[in-house]
Structure formats: C-alpha cells, structure tokens
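Example with several molecule types.
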Amino acid sequence: MQTCHGARAGELDTPHGTVPTPVFLPVGSQATVKTLTSEELRDIGFSMVLANTYHLYLRPGIDVIEKMGGLHRFMAWDGAILTDSGGYQVFSLAPLCRVSDEGVTFRSHIDGSEHFLTPELAVNYQEALGADIIMVLDECPAYDDSPEKVRKAVDRTHRWAERCLKARKPHDQSLYAIVQGAIYPELRRRSAEQLTALDFPGYAIGGLSIGESKEVMWATVEETAVLLPENKPRYLMGVGSPEDIVEGVARGIDIFDSALPTRVARNGALFTGQGRRNIRNAAFSLVEEPVDPECDCYTCRNFSAAYLSHLFRSDEILGLRLATVHNLRFISNLVNRIRNAILDGTYNAFRDDFLAGYRTTDERTRFEQKRKWLRERGT
Amino acid sequence: MQTCHGARAGELDTPHGTVPTPVFLPVGSQATVKTLTSEELRDIGFSMVLANTYHLYLRPGIDVIEKMGGLHRFMAWDGAILTDSGGYQVFSLAPLCRVSDEGVTFRSHIDGSEHFLTPELAVNYQEALGADIIMVLDECPAYDDSPEKVRKAVDRTHRWAERCLKARKPHDQSLYAIVQGAIYPELRRRSAEQLTALDFPGYAIGGLSIGESKEVMWATVEETAVLLPENKPRYLMGVGSPEDIVEGVARGIDIFDSALPTRVARNGALFTGQGRRNIRNAAFSLVEEPVDPECDCYTCRNFSAAYLSHLFRSDEILGLRLATVHNLRFISNLVNRIRNAILDGTYNAFRDDFLAGYRTTDERTRFEQKRKWLRERGT
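Resulting structure tokens for the full complex:
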C-alpha cells in the first residue's frame, strides 16, 4: 500500500487474480455488463466486475448458476467478481419490502412473487455463485430518514453482519462489511466502530449517492473513511462517475462501482477529458474525427463521431456497444492514471488538473460552492 | 467457374478483394449489420456485405457518407460491399410511392418528407457511396399483380437499366441488372432477354420471396436462371435462409442476401444442423451445452444454452449479439461446405443430407409436397 495525501494505491488478492487499486468495477447486474462480452471487458482493461445477487436470485436463480458451474463459468469471465448481497436492491427496487430482525420480505419486481432474504441466505447465495468478494446483508435507510430510524438500521446491520460472519463456510471468498448511518456523523461513527470490532477483511461505505447532495456525500465519506482500518480495502458503493472516482480516491477510497458509465453511454453521453458530450447533438453528425481524439479505445480508433451519431439516430444496437466501450475505456485509463499519480506522489496535482479540465461551467460552480461549504464546516 | 449438376463455384473480383461464390451477404441496411462490428463480420468469415441505398440516402444522407470518405471507411469495413439501388425499399417500405417513366416519387418512412429517385440518381448515389457492386433501379411489382401490370414493370425496368448504364461514370464498380416478371414465366423470359442483350457484368433475379409460395419461387428461379449468361454471376435478391441457400445453389445461384438470419437471431431462433431452435424455449434454461454443440462460433465455444436463454429472458443486448454471431457463423460454415461439395463434385449428396437433417417435421412435409408439385408440373 502506497499513499499520497490520503490517496491509496494497493492490491486486492483474489482467487481470480490480483487486482490493483484504486479499482472501478463495471456493473453486470444480470451476469452481463450491458452490451459487452467478458472478453471485451478484459480487453478494455478490467480485471474485476460486480454482479447483483438480487437480480441473479430472481432470474435465472442461484441454483441454475450453481448447476452451470458458478458465475465465472456462466458468464465466461475469468477475472474477479464482487457480488452485492441484495440488500440495497431489496430496499430500492423491490415493492412491498418489510424488514424484521429475522430478515427482509420483499416482492419480485419481475413477477410480484414473495421472497424472504436473511443474512445467512445472502451469504449462502453469494458463496453458491462463487464470487471472490461477497457483501454482508445490510439495512439501507433513506438518506433523509430520522436519526432514530437510521440508528435502528445501523444496529440491525451490525447484528446481521455478525450473523453473516457465522454463516460463512470455509471458502476462499472475502466477506466485506457495510457501514451505514445515512448522513449523520455520529451514526456513521457508531456503525464503523461496531463493524471494525468484528475484523472483516474489507469495509464498504453504503447508503450514499441515493439522493443527498454531493457536498453531504463527500463530507460523509471523509468522516467515515478515517474511521476504517488503514490496512484494509475501502469500498464506496454505487459511486463511479469520472469526477467522483477522482474525488473518492482523494478521500482514501480503494474500490468503486457504478452503472453510471454504462448507463449514460447507452443514452449517448460520452466521457472526454473536457467532460461529457452527447453524441445525439447535431454538431457531431458531420465530424470525421472520433468523439474523443485523445482516446485509444476501439470506438475512437475505428469510427468517426459522425458514424456514432448516425448509429444513435438510427437506433442501432452497435451504437450502444461502441459508446459503452468508449466510456469504460475512459474509466479504465482514468483509474490507471490515478494509480500512477499516487505512486509518483503527484495525486493532488493530477486531481486538480483533471477536475479543472473535466467539469463543465455549471459543475465547476457547484464544485466551488462545495469547497466553500466544506471550508465553512471546518473540514 | 466449376459446376456440379447446375451448382456453381466461382469467384467475384472486386476492388476490395476476391469473393468466393456461392456467397451470402449479411444485410447492413443502415451501414451496420445489426448488433455487430465489421471486425466481427470478418472474423465470422464474411468478405462481402450488403447495404441499402434507400436507408442511407434518408439517414445520414449520401453526402454525409461521401464527406466521411465513403461507405467502407464510414463503417470501417475493408471487404466488398454490394448496395441495393433503393428500388425494392421504395416500393415496399416507403408510403405514397408514385412511379412514372421518369422515376419514382416516395415519402420517407422516417419523417414523411417527399423524395424523387431516378435511375440516374440511383447510380450516382451508389457511386458516391463507393460500393463494389451496385444495382440498377428497377420497378418491383407485387407477385400477384396482373400480367399486364407486370409486363409494364418489366419494360420500364428495361428502359431504366439502359439509363443506368448510360449514367455510369468510368469507376471500377460493377453494375448488375435485375430481372423482373413476377411469377409469369413468359414475362421473366421477356425481362431476361431484354437485359442480357445489354451485357451487364452480373444479373439478379428480383421480385421473389415477397409473398408467393416457395414452390412458385423455386419454379420461377429455375426458369429464370437458365436464361442468364453462364459466365456471369447470378444473384437471388432477398433470399438467404439455410435451406433456401442450399436450394438456390442447386438452381445455379451464386449470390444471396437476406436479413432473415440476423432478424430471426434477434427473435431467439438459432440455426442448428437439425433446424431452427428457439432459445426462449424453457427446455434450454438448464442446458450446460452450447445451443449447437457442433458449432465453432464464438457463442457456442464460450457459453451454455442456459446463459443465452438467461440473456434473452432478461432482455439483455448481449443475447442479441451472441445469437447473431451464431446464426451468421452457421451460414458462413454452410456456404463453405456448399462450395467444397461443388468443388468435390458431391453437391447433390450434400444437399440431400443437409435438407434431410435440417428440416423439422412440418417443413419436411412441405418439402415433400413441393417435390410432388414440381414432378407433376414436369420439372
């Protein structure tokens, strides 16, 4: 582990290879990162992906994937896999979710059928999938729930984390805990203290990027990250835009995941060093250059912005693929540059340079407001 | 050119390489074979594709593609390209189509705008796109139009073919004529005699596979093919299922194109040696073998039928890609086997073997009915 003003460069050892950190995990909820093959993910530069236990439990079913030889073989991916426990999806996607100490009852968002998930089952399911890193079942309150409600969720998340540890079979998967506490510093501290006492091999910060402002999110990340063990990986769940990765690394985060880069790609928003560009903008329809002339991705090496613009206007699936390849390559390159800057001891300069170039005017205004707010808050 | 009981194995020399025949052209109407990159098409085994002048004229516009350096560069395809003139699409897709000797007025199926296409413009557009083989503008009657109406379309197609020849600039593209005549043997003969007198480098049979029975289609192909010059390529437009390629080759056809293999793939119908299989069938959801264990495509080498089934049930784009790769590889392998059988002098045996294995019970019944019908008809 090498650090640079709080930014950290390390490694995750997994049964499917060593993963350099900081790392971004593309999201393959349904055992596929949308539009891409596993081979393409590897070629783009990724060595670890995320899959969702909730989605795979509902369809095709954990037993089906187990019968097919596990998730790696099912999706033909020989890199590392981290699975989410399903907690966040149950609380955010599933209708009629009812939680008790025993577990959580929810209805499928696909067919309305009723299901019951416990901490023990969440661990069993993730072990059956064969993921390299698995997550505890947690209770995710809304960011604006009352302190009393959030405190109960924090304590339940703690009890569930203990049960997850006990439910583990002696496999070689790493089980990470998830710190909750919404936007309340004292509850984040309570959660971090409870969970670090249990000695998990890695810690996630959950329950953020779900509606609170960026200012509040980063303040919470800062306050929480310093409470986590220095020698263990820190994972900021559900966060992964280019600017957020850069900001998160500065606050000591090692692992990110987000569907944002692939989702906005399918909407035609492509990352460039100067910020997001929308390929549906009429200005691109006659551009012979690639969307990002500085990019070395398959899309930018082979196709004009005009061709990509044509594919999007013509509703061609190849457009979704090429945009996804570009955005993921942008993230992969960004993470490599971040790691090199940390190792070179120049991360602060890299971060300032990147953010100065990347943000649009509106974003920069917002960024300055945030800095001001943080200064006033004394952080 | 080598022949075997009427089946022919030859070569097409184009500015973008030599293409062995028989050949099947995947359809890339909008400058993309749906879901795939040009690189993948080449890897699957194709050296020539079809694009549609009608679609590209409407979107992004012929001038845009010309400015971007031509169609090959636009879609990053260095193999050969055949473009259709737009005649068939104008008559079948565009609303409010009005034809006169001068040309055809139609409305865009995209935005309703009015356009006018002449034989001269059809040639100019295809030359601007830079296709290797271009087609004359023809008038396509419905298969059940009256003989009088079809005769007029045949004569107009002849006059337009003469105008296309005159409109050509001295480029290295090959301009093929299209024999019309619907299902009337005497009108097919009239069209073939008119057009072969003009000495085109290749001849297409148009106006088939548009609603008439297979029996009538093959009878018409047989009657028409024998009227075409032996030393020039013969192209059966819009036909390209596995069984139809096998039947068409037996009747002396060299070139096929059809969106069917890619379209049915996106509907979940996958070709196997035993016929089409629908991946949405519940039986596939637990199959660890690939969809077609005999297939060497990327999909069958890497993924179980269960995974493909899961992708289709989950509406994942990767499913559409993997099914398309499989069906096109099946066709590519089939065409290679056909060519080898012709060169070995064993095409009749190959054809019987393939059709006996490929057809489902219903199709075989229909096939036998056709044979009976053809025997009774004395052909």
